Amino acid sequence: MANSLLEMDDLRISFFTPAGEVKAVNGMSCALNQGEVLGIVGESGSGKSVSVTALMKLLVRPGKVVGGGIKFDGRDILAMSSKEMRGVRGKDISMIFQDPMTSLNPVFTIGNQLIETIRTHTGMPKKEAADRGVKMLAQVGINNPEKRMKQFPHELSGGMRQRVMIAMALSCSPKLLIADEPTTSLDVTIQAQILDLIKKMRDETGAAVILITHDLGIVSEICDRIMIMYAGRIVESGSVDDIYYSTAHPYTKGLLGCLPGSSKGVRAPLKAIEGNPVDLLDMPKGCGFASRCGECMKICLRENPPSFPIGEGHVSACWKHVPVNASEVRP
Amino acid sequence: MSENGKVLLETKDLKQHFKVIGENAFKKVKLKAVDGVSFSIRKGETFGLVGESGCGKSTIGKTLLRLHEPTSGSIIFDGTDITHANMKPFRKRMQIVFQDPYSSLNPRMTVGDIVGEPLDINRAYSSKNERREIIIDRLNLVGLNTEHMNRYPHEFSGGQRQRVSIARALALNPEFIVCDEPISALDVSIQAQVINKLIELQHELDLTYLFIAHDLAVVRHISNRVGVMYLGRLVELADAEELFKNPRHPYTQALLSVAPIPDPKLNREKGRILLEGEVPSPVNPPSGCCFRTRCKHATEECAQTRPEMEEAASRHFVSCLREKSIPEYVSA
Amino acid sequence: MGRKISEKEKLEGELEISKQANPFSMMLNIHDAAPATEEEKASRIKMRESTTYWQDAKVRFMKNQMALFSLGIIAALAIFAFVGPFLSPYKYDQQIRGSERLSPCLAHPFGTDNLGRDLLVRNMIGTRISLAIGVFCSIIVLVLGTLVGASAGYIGGWVDNLVMRGCEIIYSVPDILIIIILQISLKNFLDNTFPNMALGSAMFSIFIAFAMLYWVNMARMVRGQVLSLKEREYVLAAKAQGASGGWIVRKHLLPNAVGTIIVTAMFQIPSAIFTESFLSFMGLGASAPMASLGSLANSALSGLSSYPHWMFFPAMLIALIIFAFNNFGDGLRDALDPRLKE
Predict the structure, then answer these.
(1) Domain harbouring C303, CATH code
(2) pLDDT computed for residue C341 by the predictor
(3) Residue B131 — pLDDT band, cuts 50, 70, 90?
């Protein structure tokens, strides 16, 4: 296999707020291959969105990358100038957001924005770009694309706008598509359409996809690999089957355990994860999940666990998974 | 819970129409948020209401408490018609928990004052001490403690705020609580805490819930009976297990089939019914059956006649003209 | 496969590094693997210091040096205006024969005017009048605007429509013109009813004119706030508990709009001061021998080329007052309502 498309190495991001330093991402390493769909799952404040914002170099003050590196297609993203980055954004990496209404400009028509995006990156003549725009809209399942090109964002429904966003994101055949909670503001029946579309586009274009979500149901449907984040760290990562059927980290277990499901007995108490998310402003040392963990050990309160491999491509950051030889070497 | 318990709350052909500014900015049009809904909730049970955004489920919850004045139809609470009655005596008995734990708590009030507000409004205590005791009791009920009383909402996480919201609803010892998407805005790991708490409180205090949500798995877990809404109308109503095992309305079937399950193997196997298109506007709903525009099984007749709720199986009501000819749903 | 192996290697490499960096980090012993007690886990959860809205606002305000500096200027001006005249050996209307038209000197730091009156004390009195007008007007505006705005916003419907149309009418009338007309028409009435008023009828009619004209802005702000606040779910929750309209306005709407109200009232002060000075400069404000900064500037006009300091001091004081109040208002706005910034 060739080099990975994207590599993040010990990425650290902090927000310098008046109240103090908020460590939003706290050492995040990952690799993504061409054509792969990676799901990043985490709750609010886990750092999942912030990390891709940094990858797009869209992080704004008071947020700052304070350590680590990001390599995309062999190039160092963090060292790029903003001009270079503009060439990458939208062309090599595109992003779709949770709320398509705020990412479309309300005063321009769909066609106008689509053509503009295509022309910025390819320098196509207007006529050709328009043809390509119509083709893209048809490809994402929009009926009557010529008419839609002339409409304004507010004339479309939420699902339709998200389709337009996807068309726009894919119009320059990016190598990587980042979808940040793309279906959270949509209804289930529309969500199913959009997820199907993302899958179809991946198959057709071969673009890698990073899907950020809080919903373990969605990632199980379309992802190849999953990373679970908690308090700015990746606590577990592995293939879909690893995560769902050989769950290792107590937090992942907790997440899967607390979902109501048909097999769990109606109205029986759910196995809730007790406690509340950790305060990122005043992170206690040791493992971020310790205070809510049912299997917490003394060491968890003192030392932050590094990632331990527990299977082919399956990694867990929990002291429970210390390789046996390591503890034998130093009793 | 009880199959033949007393009916606590009943609605008959409830309609809630709003006047909104339509495409023509100078003419107001009617938005049929709730368009003829009848159901009854028995004492001690949890009645789940599911549907997509804009189907009118939240509006029903607010109309039941008369936070909106119903356009027509009737609401009967504990044998009394409260559709037009003075609500003062009923406010103590019916409460509501809202979706957004951020906007549902006044940021300038302490948690103690928020929980104490219903007591203040209804003068439900004889001394400052009694007020304090009631507040502490309710905070303890939801798993918060005395120390939290003097703190402000912004110091709490989403889950804790929702607990405060529940404590406020419990302040006056209500019998009936509308839970309007109480967990949709919470993190997954917190949702389970709140669901458990709600069930626990129901047992302890003998509460009746109307539980409104769009998450099918949650509704299935917490409800005894479930109603499915589409475009302001109830399309199916049955006991929770029956509804999820044998959905009969094509909309319910589609909804169930596309709900993501956290199980990759099941996901790969399950057959999905992808609905085409989008929900029509409630300002101008389709004639006849409101679902016909997205329904595979729709015929000419569906455009003509509006289907009524009919008992398709024991205690299982469906509003579909072609119910008999719709293939059985194989659940995953 | 290459990637997976390399990832594994990398991880082991990481472990190696962490061992070198901290040799104890991998020293796992039996004790480390013992389950942590509930107390140990609970000790990690700290609730942050409780802060109220006002404490937060204070912290934000104290960080704003420009606003603090302005607050200092305002305090100094207040002392200058209200304590100063008592310390001065002269009275504001005292004419000292033989010391007419003095340049600034030790006895008269601001000099004297053509009637031999000490300009320092006259400027003090002028500042006092300006400050008083600013504060009184903004109080009137605050009370009237809040009442009208809150009720229009909360009741809505035709009441709201009526009030807002009224506001628009007042908005569209030239305010200086109204003040002049009011002054002239009120003059007789006031002179007869309160013959011994120290401020003079002109001053008093400025108050009335301000009260009638400038609440509109405040009412609009408050109405807008109330309109957005009343859609909040906590208001709905209070309704579900049986709260009356008055209760909701008092307990929920006003406390949440208070930041905006204070800030709007604060910005009213410099604008009132400015208008008053302008009117006095036109000869429509304070009547002699009472001095206001505007009338001082006006009387300086006649000797502008020979005695520029007559103009300099009142003009500088007006500028200082307006600068300080505007900056202070800015600081307050940032502190009380961070969202309003930009």
Answers:
(1) 1.10.3720.10
(2) 41
(3) very high
Q: Which residue has the higher pLDDT, B110 or C305?
A: B110
Specify whether C17 is located in the same domain as C94.
no
Which chain B residues contact residue C239 at CB under 8 A? 67
C280, C103, C247, A186: which is closest to B260 by C-alpha?
Answer: A186
Residues C173 and C314 in one domain: yes
* Nearest residue to B264 via CA among A230, A310, A37, A181: A37
Q: Which residues contact A54 (CB under 8 A, 6 or more apart)?
A: A11, A13, A25, A63, A65, A70
Q: C229 in a domain, yes or no?
A: yes
Looking at the structure of chain C, the number of domains it has is: 2
Look-up: residue for tokens 């060439």? A87
Contact status, residue B314 vs residue B235, Cβ threshold 8 Å? no
Say if residue C19 is in the same domain as residue C132.
Answer: no
Q: How is chain A split into domains, by residue range? A: 6-92+174-328, 99-173
Amino acid, res. B147: E
Query: Could you tell me if residue B13 is left (phi over 0), alpha (psi between -120 and 50 degrees) or otherwise beta?
Result: left
* Residue C144 and residue C272 in one domain: yes
CB < 8 Å from B in window 250-309 of A:
254-256, 258-262, 264, 266-267, 269-274, 276-277, 292
Poorest-pLDDT segment among A229-238, B25-34, B106-115: B25-34
pLDDT, position C196 = 62
Superfamily of domain A6-92+174-328: P-loop containing nucleotide triphosphate hydrolases (3.40.50.300)
Q: Which domain holds residue C252?
A: 55-340
In a domain, C49, yes or no: no
- Are residues C130 and C27 part of one domain? no
Closest CA to B139 of B156, B125, B121, B124: B156
- Residues B299-326: pLDDT tens digits? 888 888 899 998 888 889 999 988 888 8
Q: Which of residues 166-225 of C touch B (CB under 8 A)?
A: none
Is residue A144 within 8 angstroms of chain C, CB to CB? no
Same domain, C102 and C238: yes
Q: Is residue C287 part of a domain?
A: yes
Question: What is the average pLDDT across B35-44?
Answer: 92
Instruction: Report the alpha-carbon distance of residue B41 to residue A221 in Å, rounded.
Output: 36
Do C122 and C25 have their domain in common? no
For chain A, give the percent of residues with pLDDT over 90: 14
Cis peptide before C289 (omega within 30 of 0): yes
**Percent of all residues in chain C with a pLDDT value above 90, rounded to a whole number:** 1
C48 belongs to a structural domain: no
Q: What is the mean pLDDT of residues A226-248?
A: 91
A309 CA: distance to closest CA in chain C (Å) = 7
What are the angstrom distances between the C-alpha of B245 and each of B254, B296, B332, C288?
Answer: 13, 21, 9, 92
> Are C135 and C266 members of one domain?
yes
What is the 3-class SS of C151-165, one letter each residue? HHHHHCHHHHHHHHH
A189 touches C: beta carbon within 8 Å: no
Q: At residue C188, what is the residue type?
A: N
Least confident of B28-32, C26-30, C117-121, C336-340: C26-30
Percent of chain B having pLDDT more than 70? Answer: 97
Which H or E element spans position B225? strand B225-230
For residue A263, the distance in angstroms to the closest alpha carbon of chain C comes to 30
- Over residues A150-185, the pLDDT tens digits come to 999 888 888 888 888 888 888 888 899 999 988 887
- Best CA proximity match to B105, nearest among B59, B64, B152: B152
Report chain C residues whose CB lies below 8 A from the CB of B118.
Answer: 241-242
Q: Are strands B233-239 and B225-230 parallel, antiparallel or unpaired?
A: antiparallel
- pLDDT over threshold 70, residue A224: yes
Residue B50, pLDDT > 90, answer: yes
Average pLDDT of span A69-85: 88
